[in-house]
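Standup, Tuesday
Yesterday: got the pipeline producing structure tokens again.
Today: sanity-check two examples.
Blockers: none.

Example 1:
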Amino acid sequence: MAAETSTDLVVLGAGPGGYAAAFRAADAGMSVSLIDPAPHPGGVCLYRGCIPSKALLHVAKLLAETEEAAAWGIKYQRPEIDLPRLRAWKDDVVKRLTGGLGDMEKRRGVTHVRGYARFRSAGSIWVDHGHGETTTINFKHAILATGSRPVALPMLPADSPRVMDSTAALDLPDIPPRLLVVGGGYIGLELGSVYARLGSKVTVVEMLPSLLAGVDGDLVRPLAKRLAVLFEDILLETRLESARETDSGMEVTLAGKDGKTRTQTWDRLLVAVGRRPNTSDLGLENTEVETDGDGFIHVDAARRTREPAIFAIGDVTGQPMLAHKASHEARVAVETACGRASVFAPRAIPAVVFTDPEIAWCGLTEAEARTAGTKIQVARFPWAASGRAATLGRDDGFSKLIMDPETRRLLGVGLCGPGAGELIAEGVLALEMDATVDDLALTIHPHPTLSETIMEAAEVFDGHSTHFYRPPRRG
């Protein structure tokens, strides 16, 4: 059965970018249809990504603290893991949040359309609801927010239950005695940490010379040191050559940088080697929308594609593939569709790795400065000198500021330690406000807090940090 309708704006994909766009457009008075196969808004982030992973990482952190508390004179028996109940709790978190978004959708008058959409033209899409039911929606504007999916490795059996991507891993099918994580990026390290805390012996294999490629090495080192204890093994500059399923598990052959191979068996494999945009099979060939060789959509500063009526936001537009970036791009796309001048030009986009310790950064990194030949000055304040960090039993972190030595303008912020993801927002705001390091140093921070470490890092530049001494630079 086929139906046809019209709307001011159609949004393809109900993740953090898509539902933010739909809600903002509805608030502006537009009629909006939000298309997604799920029953409520949320997308990968809420259903199969950010939210369930952070729920499990909170559990992992709690388990770690029960072990570390022995050093403070508090001893616990080893916790018992009730996996079905843990899985149900995680699913309930997702259900409550997505259900709440569904309520917001109804209150705003957004029409939720379940199904998969394809463009018929630059002003019409066709939605397949399944069971032979379809709808044609004519629109004035469209926003593509279809997100991304995990990259699969061709040498691995695609139909083996022993091979998991991030989605399968978040379902917690079991706690494998031996788990191989393929990929030393943030997804692999976050989920590897969860399974290690739950009881798996975890090995991480990474092709590149370091974990978290692209992140400043000093930020990664405290995490790498802690993971070296938590994980069974971390194999850098190592490549997965082949894998086959046997009665005892997945038999995997790995090759090191010296060309030597080793074969070992793991109960499960978690593949976390990146994500690719969901831009295939959308009927883009029926429009003027253009993509690059990797499938990412070309957009201008207003998030408009080569097709004037069609915008694109989020993962489909390229790196960084972050939910909060998509949400802010949604604002720009909707404002532009409403006829207002708007561009996506942030000074800083924060990034967070929710491991233990957490790593967060924004703005210019030291690695980027070196590559570009940019003159910078760097100051670090070790959390070993923080009273608040001492009360938490965690002195392995630090705060880092990157400054323009001529203007003293803040160029970048890096943090490593518990709660770094919460603290980084101060750095983002400072960069957006074009603050100097003096602005940070003169801002009164509450004591005792971890936020003080940002203030004291600013004071380090001139050798005035109260709790850490470094002779000031002369001349």
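Example 2:
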Amino acid sequence: MLYPLKFKPLFKERIWGGTALASTMGKRLPADKLIGESWELSGVEGDISVVSNGKLRGNNLQELIEVYMGELVGDRIYEKFGLEFPLLIKLIDAQDVLSIQVHPDDQLAAKRHNSYGKTEMWYVVDNKPGASLYVGFKGDVTREQYLKAVAEGTLPSLLNRYEVKKGDAYFIPAGTIHAIGKGLLIAEIQQTSDITYRVDDWGRVDKNGKPRQLHTELAVDAIDFASHANLNVTRTPKRNEAVTIEQCNYFTTNLLEIKGEVEREYVTLDSFVIYMCLEGGAEVLCGEHHETLAKGETMLIPAEADSVTLQGEAQLLEIYIA
């Protein structure tokens, strides 16, 4: 039987990054670089996660799917996605504000990029006072009003700005215009896609004094101007119970607060399970296997596991495809 797998994080230097992934989440970051993202579990081409524990250490995720297929990811998931792992799991350190951006849905991404779209969700792991997220338009905005605001540099005035704190969560369907504000540490769960259309970068320039590329024309066809749903999906944790934050076609994310021992049953679930440890730590017992999960670590439980016992005091995100 496969054992719980941990992976080497893939660090991404970003103009808006910092060092909070080291100071808050215990990551060993490269020196003298602003690290904005830690890709905890990735099947993105060119950035395939590599196992860091046990006898499979050094093998990448795609190689494991090729060998273990449904035993690792679930039969239904393997039939649909083949060797491509369907989720991308990140930690994001926003020491400065990210660009205002949008991601295409599956249909548009397939047409333009031969890729899946990007629906995602955010969970606030830590925050500085006054930190904010920008999610969706304040009200009815036409395509023409949007383009006028982009041209005049007034786009932020059209967006919902939410002051957020640790434990808040937001769901971001593909087509939703959004930005992460400065002073936030975010856990991001998303479809496997690295397609971003940047529409405003707050007048920022790089170290050479040049602005980053914008994708105004590509973005306008990707934006869902009609949606005004409340995308705040914050939930109150319950001791030793899984509380569902978001369940959509692409993923289910639960909040799991452990004190003592919890057994999670997965007999009827035809999917891998991912644990992200955001606070504390836990011992993970899976069949005859025993692994430790520390704050800042992410673990993949193989789909063939019928149950997992968690021992310790920790706050986890539990992620799978229902």
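Quick observation on example 2: The helical segments are 20-23, 61-68, 70-73, 75-81, 106-113, 143-152, 216-220. The longest helix spans residues 143-152.
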